[in-house]
Design goal:
alpha/beta; TIM Barrel; seven-stranded mixed sheet; three-stranded parallel sheet; 9 helices; 10 strands; 38% helix
Length: 272
Amino acid sequence: MSPAPAPRRAVRAAAAVLAAAALLTGCAQSVDPIERLGKKAAQSVRSHTPAARQPYRRWGLPAPLAPAPRPASRPAPPRTAGPALAPVVDHVPTRDRVVFLTYDDGAEKDPRFVDMVRELRLPVSLFLTDTVVGPGYAHFARLRSVGAGVQNHTLDHPALPGLPYAGQRAEICGQQDKLTSRFGIRPRFFRPPYDRYDTTTLRAAADCGVAAVVLWRATVTSGGLSYTHGDHRLRPGDIVQIGPDDIRERTTRVLRRLQKEGLTVARIEDYL
């Protein structure tokens, strides 16, 4: 049989090309190109998309945490309780819609909390007790390297009221010296164990170079937020204490609460 004329061969070739294109178009419309890679490969590709890399989603937040405003100037120092006594604060007078997150003791050394502070850029403050931290100072050095502040919570965590001046001064100044040696910066703030203090505590704190005795107005527990006094809601300038257990989960809960109420987290060192 003689070969088909050239025009006929060209028509057949064009028809074949059109049929192949139609087949490919139909597949593209019915099958996700990523899914054609296979289920595991598709999951891997999607896990590396920009949306999946958003830190706020990884830490359970519905939206990015609003950055704290920069105070125009440092507020006036808190009023002291008397001559040569350190002032006591649990709330900072400010119109900025910020609160301050604080953590005590140093018992929990969750390495993922370091990631959380770094990725969310949380300006938290850590009040450390030497005997509780024990050999774990390297963990808090990592937290400090990603922006956390380190403050004083005594050497041994005793109940201070009723102790003589020399004993209270040894607890406070001793931890001031220890933290200065560890981190190269002398703490400005002190938190008494159990939130308890007396006039001797305030005098010893002032003599140790403490700028303020920092308590809290709200605390985050397994049952939610509780308040030491005033309205049972977070207000701008509140100091919040977060308990040591489930530290990441409790931090996420309070951050969600802040976002609902139009608040964010600021560095207490910028306001006191």
